[in-house]
Input
Amino acid sequence: MLFNSIKFAIFLPIVFFLYWFVAKRNLKYQNLLLILASYFFYACWDWRFLFLLIFSTLLDYYSGFKIATVEEKHKKKLWLIASVLINLGILGVLKYYNFFVSSFVNTLLQFGIKADLGTIKVILPVGISFYTFHGLSYVLDIYNGKIKCERNFVNYSLFVSFFPLLVAGPIERATHLLPQIVRKREFDYSKAVDGLRQILWGLFKKIVIADNCAQVANLIFNNPGQYSGSTIVVGAIFFSFQIYGDFSGYSDIALGTARLFGIELLRNFAFPYFSRDIAEFWRRWHISLSSWFRDYLYIPLGGSRGGVWMKIRNTMIIFLVSGLWHGANWTFIFWGFLNALYMLPIIIFKKKKYDTDVVAKGKYLPSIKEFLSIGITFAFTVFAWIFFRAENMTIAIECVSKIFSRTLFTIPELTGNTNILYTVIFTCLFFIAEWFGRGQPYAIAKLFPKRSRLLRYAIYYVIIIATIRMGGQDQQFIYFQF
Amino acid sequence: MRKFIVEIFWFLLILLIPAIIGIFLPCTPRASKSLLQSSFQKDSLMENIKSDRIIFIGGSNLSFGLNSQMIKDSLKLNPINTGIHAGIGLFYMMRNALNYIKKGDIVILVPEYQHFYSDFAYGEEGEMLTRIIFDTDISKIRLLEQRQLMYVIKMLPKYTFSKYNPIEYFNLSYDVIYSVEAFNEYGDANKHWEMEKIPYVPYGDLGSTKFNISVLEKIKKFQIKIKEKEAELFITYPGYQDSSFFNVKEQINKIERYLKQYNFNIIASPERYVIPTSMTFDTPYHLTKTGADYRTKMFIEDFKRSYSQPAFSKK
Output
């Protein structure tokens, strides 16, 4: 059930109605309803994987309980190790087994050794990387004494499986979400309106920006051999907007949906394409994943405490792991590696850290320095996206070699796609809206608060009509595959 | 809560009233020039042309890739080219044609390769299927099954708001190649035959790699119904530009394997209809006059060979 599907448009009002009118004011029933709705939502993808989700939930629930209740330190550690190993084991087998086996066989082949290690035929359960990380953060936080274990299984299940975040995040923390689940929730008019507004904006990003940019990007990346270097650059730029519109659009819909039920999820994007360097970009892009890796990998590895070399090593590790988290393909690993390389000058020269405060705060336009920094960071990011988008390393290298050829200086060939002009216009308008709304949690969060309701409604209608008019060919949300 | 519900109600009502009106507004002047309007002509051909008939069912690989006059001259059959646009979906094309198939008809099914993957045969893109229903003959909604209806419903908002788009009423310049005027008396689109080839990028994929087995099941049922009408079904492959073909050769081979497994009456092989780029017009399926002649000539040879086999030598 996609967020931009008719099924979801029917599902959400039904759950909303039952939640506030039938299970009204009874937290136990509200949570039970949400967990049932979440399992139904997940079963719509493939009901067989529901068992895996429930197993994963039971595993972490029980491990968390044992870690919290056993007295001996070494037993706590054993339960933690068991939980981490089983979680990562399932993820490893389902997501990475074939990749590692075929990479190993290919490596042996380079040395003239023929090996036949069987691969497994398996469909990757949707959202597995996300709910595995939810569970891991829970047991790690209990082990580290940051939270107490949750004794109520329904509450814990809801933390793992709450449908807005189940298949593509944000990756929640028990410290943030569990207290909201166990607390009584009252309907709040302004929060509900804000939730709907964020859903609308998310749909606009997905349907108008991402799906239309995808049509151009797919055309080019599905057949890069046919295109010039300049066209591939254009394709990469379109892909950059596609992936941003797609994933941040999904996050907006997830956050907005959760808010309708009185639950606040973690912010996942903070206008990343306005970042002034790559470190800032990673503090603004997929924030819930970046902070997860920071807290559960980077800091335990020593973080920034051990000098420059240790910092470089740790940065390399988290970016490579982050690349691998995105998918079992060398393209993702190289994408992670490339981002780690981008970080090196910042680490080596100990560049002053930009915080994630508003860029060019209080000004209409950025300064020339800011403008150049944003442009350069964007260019580096776009270049890295080529590896992320390419089907394999051969295609990625083909794209890059085309970019660094004379054909870079030719006019891009984008014939035959009449929608391109509209896509460019809407993407520019979107970019402008994002710039002027960059001080808000999302671009239209405080849309003309002092103006009349009529004007605000008119803008909502324009967004809806644009979404209907520009609705491109449906594309699956990219992050579902991770 | 009450305030919230009331506001949503009014908000949606303001949106829904023009949307519902839009559905029932007459077809816009721009849409009335669309190639979809040729469905009237094609239905009329199927209704009125006398036996012995050879009816071609498929998408634009037929409308833009066949020279029916050659078929008439060579096979001495009355050709009817029902091809309009692949986006309508194969299932709609088949169900619509079934209404008109008569005893003794030879039906040649030529699906685009995309029809075998994902839900393309259901008309999953939605727009063409929605438009052919609402812009031509709304009563044909009865031909749709549930999944097709879902795609139509999904497309309805876009369709209904197009009725309020000024371009639909005032900017009436249109491409004659893709208009209702493009078709000759057999249903071939031939306005482009005298035009220069338009450069285009070959297809790198078929849009999806998810093979849809139900397409074969539905063709099987279609074959049974045709037999009941004492007509005969043949399946053949579309003319497809060479480099696009080689980009998806594996996927096309899979289609061929499955069609053979189902024991359909198959004419020739996909390789047979690989068309040199120079003979294609503006997409891998659309052929120039030379291309259409080349493909038709091969089809005639292949058809004669298949039809002269003992199983089909009734004539």
User: Anything to note?
Assistant: The CA atoms of residues 195 and 288 of chain B lie 8 Å apart. The first strand of chain B starts at residue 53 and ends at 58. The radius of gyration of chain B is 21 Å.
